[in-house]
Amino acid sequence: MLLKNTYNEFIKIVAKPRSYLGFGALTLLIAIIIFAMKADGETIVSFITASFEQTLSFNGKLVNGNLIAFIILQMLVVHIPLLVALVTGDLISGEAAMGTVRMLATKPISRTQIVLSKFIAGAIYTLLLTIWLGFLSLFVSHLVFGAGDLIVLNSDGLVILQEADILWRFGLGFCVAFLALLTVATLSICLSAFAENSVGPIVSTMAIIILFTIIGSLDVTVFDTIKPYLFTTHMASWRSFFEDPVPYDSIYQSIIVLLIHIAVLIGITLYKFNKKDITS
Amino acid sequence: MKKFFLLAFLCFSAISFGQTANAVIDKINAKLTAVKDYTVNANINANIPMIKIMPSNVKIYFKQKDKFKIESKGIVIVPKQGFTELNNFISNKSKYTAVFGENAVIRNVQTRLINVIPNEGAGDIVLAKIWVDVAKSVIMKSQITTLSNGTVNVDYTYGDQISRGLPSIMKFEIDVKKFKIPKSVASDINKSSADKKKTSVNQKTKGTITITLSNYKINTGLSDALFVKKKN
């Protein structure tokens, strides 16, 4: 019954035009980034290497498909949550707004299974969006720019990763990025359980992400105690796969924090939806 | 009066050591100019604070007077100066004044320090110090100070091409004090401010790049077209 309902929920997502907005927006954004990098990629890269190039000379193909894929991921990780929330924020509140929630609750399926099927359908949509992001950023970038070593800048300095040592990092990076987006999807589904219209959960999800991201990026000691508990802090942990050596401990920690967030948010959603008065 | 003392010092040096600093440099130049071009395999191993890169194998092409090219499959980091600048600088006698300095033993080899002081308008180089194995007419160590890039120390080790003055190992010491990370690009929001401070305190100020050169192919008549930069 859960699987059948999940299938139905996924059909509902597919039937909504807004579900394609995310794919369209991603395609357009990535096309713009690839065009910009093709036109002026060397200048953008020189911004990274400028302070080193007084003493050192970088030889080789710096602007390549791997770098572009990394830049795309870095740039879009802030925007993709909006595209996810646009669909998942509507999953429960949309039913409430249209009045179909009553009909849904009369089906021979428990309310817990209704929420879980919506969560699974939302997760599949998020996965498809992540795969599309991976395909466009990696495959198309490689097609346009070719392969090459990846130069990554983090707060410790530059890390230059060899071409043969990159693909698995992207693979695992996308997995963690998916988990981060799934947290966003779960948050919006959770907020959706509290609302009677779609706009509220979508806007609230983005407001929370923006607020947490600002707290996380502020270099103030007083926030150091709460930063590890914010899911936005761990949304960027896909980047850790591009460090050398890979800090697996901090990645595991991020995965655990994200999973706890998902579990707690599903728990809240289940509690709220099971208690929800659908008669009035 | 100062000029007199300098002249007297130079004469004393020349008499006491049998040959002038210029004569020593001439012998080095004679060796180096005999090599019109070369191709060599190189292993580049960079150990630089703030930069993590695996050792890589490349091919280096050189043609007199200053044509230089590195061919690599991936990204490699090499010092901005130190390959051709010194040889070019010491090859033009009108551009500098050479003065002997102290003796020094470098890796069990007796060397003489020659201070190469540029004459007016000589360019970017402020001072070049070279430690020379006078018996074999090769540079064992150099310290080049430039206006644009600060000071770079290079240690030279020689192998089977010592007769041509071509090293088998070059070890560059790089000053990394100027390196700065643009904060807007390096967005590690999952690092606390304490972690970031800890990282900046732990940074060393010197780095090394060791280039091991092997399989020299000398005077094969490399074409100029080889050194023309291709657009990606």
Word description of this protein:
The complex is a heterodimer of chains A (280) and B (232). Chain A has 280 residues and is mainly alpha-helical. Chain A has one domain. Chain A is built from 11 helices and 3 strands. Chain A has helices at 2-15, 18-49, 65-76, 80-88, 93-98, 100-105, 111-145, 167-194, 199-217, 231-235, 248-275; strands at 56-59, 150-154, 157-161. In chain A, a hairpin with a 2-residue loop joins strand 2 and strand 3. In chain A, helix 7 packs antiparallel against helix 8. The longest helix of chain A has 35 residues, at 111-145. The radius of gyration of chain A is 21 Å and the shape is elongated. The two termini of chain A are 27 Å apart. The mean pLDDT of chain A is 89. Chain B is an alpha+beta fold and 232 residues long. Chain B has a single domain (2-180, 190-220), classed as outer membrane lipoprotein receptor (LolB), chain A, CATH 2.50.20. Helices cover 20% and strands 44% of the residues of chain B. The radius of gyration of chain B is 20 Å and the shape is globular. A 10-stranded antiparallel beta sheet of chain B has the order 4-3-1-12-11-10-9-8-7-6, covered by helices on one side. The N and C termini of chain B lie far apart (59 Å). The chains are: A mainly alpha (280), B alpha+beta (232). Chains A and B meet through helix 2, strand 1, strand 2, strand 3 and helix 9 of A and strand 2, strand 5 and helix 4 of B.
Q: What is the fold's blueprint, element by element?
A:
The complex is a heterodimer of chains A (280) and B (232).
Chain A lengths: L1 H14 L2 H32 L6 E4 L5 H12 L3 H9 L4 H6 L1 H6 L5 H35 L4 E5 L2 E5 L5 H28 L4 H19 L13 H5 L12 H28 L5
Antiparallel strand pairs in A: 2-3
Helix pairs in contact in A: 1-7, 2-4, 2-7, 3-7, 4-8, 4-9, 7-8, 7-11, 8-9, 8-11
Chain B lengths: L1 H16 L3 H14 L2 E11 L3 E3 L2 E8 L3 E5 L4 E4 L5 H7 L4 E11 L2 E10 L6 E9 L4 E9 L3 E9 L8 E9 L17 H10 L3 E13 L14
